[in-house]
Amino acid sequence: MFRLEPRASAPLLWQVATPVLAVLATMIGGGALFAAMGFDPLAAIRTIFWDPLFGPAAAYSRPQLLVKAGPLILIACGLALGFRAGIWNIGAEGQYIIGAICGTAVALAAYPLDAFWIFPAMILAGALGGWAWGMVPALLRNWFGASEILVSLMLVYVAQKVAAWMAFGPMKNPKGFNFPGSRNLQQYDAAANPELIAGSGLHWGGVAAVLALAATWFVMSRHVLGFHIRTAGAAPRAARFAGVRPERLVALCLGVSGALAGLAGLFEVAGPAGQITESFGSGYGFTAIIVAFLGRLHPLGILLAGLLMALTYIGGELAQMMLNLPAATVQVFQGMLLFFLLGFDILTRYRIRRRA
Amino acid sequence: MTDVFRAEGLGKSYPGVRANDDVSFAVAGGEIHALLGENGAGKSTLVKMIYGLVRPDEGRMALLGAPYAPHDPRAARAAGVAMVFQHFSLFEALTVAENIALGMEDPPPRAELARRIEELSQGYGLPLNPARRIASLSAGERQRVEILRCLLQDPRLLIMDEPTSVLTPQEAGILFATLRQLAEAGTAILYISHKLEEIRSHCDRATILRQGRLVGTVDPRAHSARELAAMMVGAEMRLVDRSGRKPGAPVLEVRGLSTPGGEGVALKDIALSLRAGEILGIGGVAGNGQEELLSALSGETATAPGTVVLEGRDLSTASPETRRRAGLLAAPEDRLGHAAVPEFSLAENTLLTAGARQELIRRGLIDRKAATAFAQQVIHAFDVRTPGPGTAAGALSGGNLQKFVIGREVLGRPRVLVVNQPTWGVDAGAAAAIRQALLDLAAQGAGLIVISQDLDELLELSDRFCALNQGRLSAPRPTEGLTIEEIGLMLGGAHGMEVAHVPA
Fold this sequence. Notes:
By secondary structure, chain A is mostly helical. Helix content of chain A is 70%, strand content 3%. The termini of chain A are close together.
């Protein structure tokens, strides 16, 4: 009946249109799902996409937008570098957790000292921790040809166990009435990552995300490193011919994306989360994968996609409270979004023709 | 002679391309009929229609006088049409008999099949042991398997798609003896090629296509190769100008160059010396180490110290970028994905190799304006037909992209340029332009290594010739006075193939 015909080049219009189409399809698909579950679909969609920004409780939920979007954008920037090169870091969640633990370790070691260097040292430790966790799959791939997809993914579960161990063991708050979890860094001024402008939700993580966006844009479009990354992703042999060393690129991309994820974890634990708990990882590392793809691996797209995904987080929570929607709704929603995006992506690379 | 196959007014369009337009011709039983045309002239499309891979938009075909409109290759085979493709589809780990059985609709018992294979291979002078594994066979012998596979179907029309491109001249001779014998038994043979000499000496008639249209069906023996080429191209061939070159001091020394091989062919103790202003031709059947040699010279593969020395500087372990800075440039065979990135614009593709030499990249920063200007310069100097530097490389035709890739390196003013298959898949006009550019570069004092499977091209361009055979490079010989037969022997002769004994 119909057949797909490859396009010579991907038109810009479709590259921009497919994410929008995917969002619309997700609204329709999600609405149908809610209807099937016995909820009013229009009310649910409005609660998720509209109310967090303009609804009655917007004063509370609006700052959350930056709180959630910050780490998503920061992680997605790093992932986008690797994804462009065909290097698949699926384990940002683990790097995020380890970064948070390393940063917290610095804070707890310095406690209760009050010194200006503590927060910068935590940032450094967070980045280093994430970098190191990202270098594990990089080195295993370079030395033994292990798939970085599997290794990075499985290291997420190791990181989660490490977080649980820290929360129950070495990092447990001595004054925490034996509850698992570290001291709350929000109450330790030298280590805290406070809201910078009251009521905005902006903390240092948001600043870092903006810097990361700018740096990603610069590297990808102006620097030879970005050119090498794109070449390696599009044509590995051409990259070798141009002088790219694939092993170096693997180490660089996994290291940088790990460091950025570690930073995101550090800003989270020193700010909104406050402490290392058993369940510190909240899925930002995985959602950031969707953000990176939804944003077309482009900084501007990542900014918009990060804000949109943050919105579904907040809207999903709101829908749980207001409409009693199940907690898994957000994940289903985010999954649908990626699904539709990848599906509609075919339209950028192929055109549909009627079979003669 | 009666017509086995007849086509009337065949037409086929693809988006933006008229691949075939009103093509009519006939193939008679007992003849070897050549289908001749440049790349892109519509030979492949025409053959695909005959073999049921593509359906014509207009026109009719007839086989043995009956209307013929196969909707898939299976129907074509059932009707008596068989085809040997340029690229073999054989499982290396299986034996000859097993491979043939896999391709049959209803294979007979193993012993029966082996007996029939022996019978046919003896009868047609194609000696083959049914129990041998494909992996141990040479290219010529693998082709025999494909031919036998077709013969078992007892075809009335046998289509051969550029069969000699993987063969040495001696192996090709054996193939033609077999084809002649088949033709004498009444089979019609449609022989696709763009090698003119081959067609002139072995084919009875030739149908020539140009830009999808029929030029005519002629007797190839009644025309010179130049006349045939002119019919193919639609204009007189331009002769290249070899004048103005004199060999200078040695620029590149390669000594004891060996590579481990791994997935490809291992290079074994390669030695060569290249002088300024000289073109060294390296011939060989595909898959004898050509790509590996280019990689070792371009820097994609590092080799032992002292093996690659450019003007006294040891570059054996240097990266491709370092080698380019030193003046050792290369253009690989595969345009899409190796020499150029199809998704990138031409301007971006200049950055792959010209970043340092053209100062398109300074201190890590990309100068887009300079890249666009350099791309424009290449487009202009090498007559690349494209809307502009912003066009994606993948949107260019093979010949135009090849002109761009070669031009990018030539304008880099190399001390030494290594090219692999510079005119592969390129139409005759563009090929002549590329060859002239290479000759001009040598005349300006650069040393060139031209690796090619096109022996005519090597004879036309090179001052000295050597052969690459199973990773070994022969000693060079002056091209002047070298005959095709001598070259064939340098390329490994018939690769130890048993010679056909055609029964009288």
